Amino acid sequence: MAIQIINDSQARDSSPIVGIDLGTTNSLVAYVQNGTPSVLKSREGKHLIPSVVTFEGGIPVVGDIAKRHKVRDARHTVFSVKRLLGRGLEDLKQASSELPYEIVSSEGGVAIRVEGKTYTPIEISAIILRELKAAAEAALGKPVKRAVITVPAYFNDSQRQATRAAGRLAGLDVMRIVNEPTAAALAYGLDRKREGLIAVYDLGGGTFDVSILKLHNGIFEVLATNGNTALGGDDLDRVIVNSAIREIRERFGIEANQDIDLNAALIEAAEAVKIALSEKTEAQLEVEVKLDGGKRREKFTQRWTRDEFQFLARAVVEKTREPCLQALKDAGLSPNDLSDVVLVGGPTRLPVVQDVAREIFGREPNTSVHPDEVVAVGAAIQADILAGNNKDFLLLDVVPLSLGLETYGGLMSPLIPRNTRIPTVAKEVFTTFVDKQTGVDIHVLQGERDRVDDNRSLAKFKLKGIQPMPAGLPRVEVSFLIDADGILQVAAKDLHTGYEQSIEVRPSYGLTDAQVEDMLRSSQEHADQDIEFKKWVEARNEAEPVLRSSELKLSDAYRLLPQADALKIEQAIGKLKAALSQKNVADIREASHLLSQATVKLADLIVKEAIIRASS
Amino acid sequence: MAAALVSQPDRCADCSQPLTGTLSPHLCAQCGQPQPVQPSEDFFLTLGAPRRFSQDLGQLERRFYELSRALHPDRFPGKNAVSLERMSHLNRAYSTLKNRAELRSYLLELEGVKVGSQNQIPMELAESWFELQDTLMEDPEAARTKLQEFEKEMFRFKQVEETALMTLEKSYDQSFAREDLEKIARHIQAQSYLKSLDRDIGRIREKVFGHGHSDHK
Questions:
Q1: Is residue B194 part of a domain?
Q2: Helix A513-552 crosses helix A585-615 at what angle (to 10 degrees)?
Q3: Which residues of A touch B (CB under 8 A)?
Q4: Predicted structure pTM score
Q5: Domain identity same for B172 and B99
Q6: Most C-beta atoms within 10 A of its C-beta, which of A143, A203, A389, B157?
């Protein structure tokens, strides 16, 4: 009966479910109201919220304000954190040398060090999600506790788990993890009511995905997907940055990427050049270079023509070809079978990207969807489906990478091949090799390679509590279930006793549910501290100008006011100073208020005196 | 009377109403709850498809879509374990029945016909295979032509095998004779060696043509 009650309350939960596109460069939140999806505005009134977090006195600030700090305060500003999500330090050798902030090894993956404090990519992502949650709450005028979050289709299990953990940490119930190209297809299909086979070519800030879908009467069936989770618009900026670094080295003899501020400035300037070149045929990169240990500054400029950029960019964009061809092959299709090729993601605005897509698929790609917003809109449509408001649409997705087990000799034996429809389950019976053995080690892998080491290790665990028996007799059935989020769950059953074993699969590069709960609790405690801190900063910011101007006017006070009134002002100044040094918000407010009151008459007299002087 | 007692469960696991309608045994028409998958529910039953080799792919897809709409976890708020189990079962049923090779092994398994594995080369290919091995040792240059000849021969062998299998499958679909299934099993057994043969050929090709040689023409 208890279960029935829980189900009922969940069914009746009418609180909004929003759709979130948690991007490498920008993030968006969207919502479907009465069948119409719309992107919700940030608290700064924009659709795109830069996925940038800066820290001011240890307090995180997200979005446009943080983005402005990218150059000014590179050491305290974290961007492109999605590239680090769910990954280990070994995967990130390249990325960490390109990112200006400090990346360190941490238990269960990597962390980012800002001002001596370390944050995991999950925590940084949660900070961004919290901002999106707040934006949605402000826009909808009610609390938002549930969300659908998108991930690149080619994200592996660790990266998906990390995304889900970030959502939980931000105080969101993650109703579904949806693949970005699939979400885009949903939004494309809603608009146009099209049928047939389509390819979604999704080049984002840091990831590339391609998905082949069949659209039929409201069903969106993914036939195959492929991609590269370390390829995106960032890499196109990189070709400009690298060229500038070379020229700076030749001209000034310094290593630009070892100067955090210069590196950040170059990344920003390169992005501007790239964007300018999709409209103009020429653009100029400009940064300031510090020489002689900061004593001398010199301007560095580099001219770029569109042709030069396209030549270098092409080598990067060409890397999208192989995944596209593989996805077509896996779907058993040729480019002629497709009825449309949909371009998604900011970088697909670039002519060179459109050229490559056109060549791969042998047709003019469709650029009619909004490349930045379509994924968030799709996530909102999926949220609407989960809320039970849209019974016409249904997404049928696949697992992007094969899932397998380590077998004797360090080889991976696939259990669930890539492009298998999800949810799915595979069962395998394990036995023992030694008499009276009571445990069996299981190593779960994800990837397409033969050698264990070439694949992603998802989890290692031991089946315990096997009854001591002669070797080969015990039979333990292990079920590997991939749910509708593309996330692995493992269960084991002893076939002799029928006893179900619970297995905690600890993600190799993520957090367990228990760790997330712990962090959530401590972040709620911190949230109170954070609010206190913010109040103090606000009170201080209000009080300080009052204090300064009063101090300046103190001599006027003794000149213009009765002695007693002037003394009152001087006392009020002393009180406010004391309150500020004690950091007591209520006292600061009160003392500040008293001081303003005490100086009202004085201000009035000063103005009058000025008018008299001016007229005489 | 005894038969009725061993029939599969025909009442809803949630509301105990009889399971009827076009969505049984997947979903209870009364309370709308998905029903646990019974061990007796094979992939043919799941998709309402005839228990045979020949399948109407259009019909399979229509039924798969219809059931997906009703059973998918997206249709049930919160975590519905039964919907997850149902949908996983449906997905596996659909991909098995859609794929010739998978359907073949599945039907044999269901009918209790065992397929052994073979660790020697099919008779039809044996002679040229050993000839190729000899040439490889004596005259690596000449082995190139021999290899290409062998590959052609193997391609023809696979075609003949496939035609034989299809004839047997047609025959089974009309007669449901166990004899046909056993013949099919023997053919599959012979084919099982071809996979390792394909790998061997790949290695030989690398040896005689060098690395990076592709067989696309």
A1: yes
A2: 30
A3: 6-7, 10-11, 13, 176, 216-217, 219, 221, 382, 385-386, 388, 391, 394-396, 420-425, 481, 483-484
A4: 0.82
A5: no
A6: A203
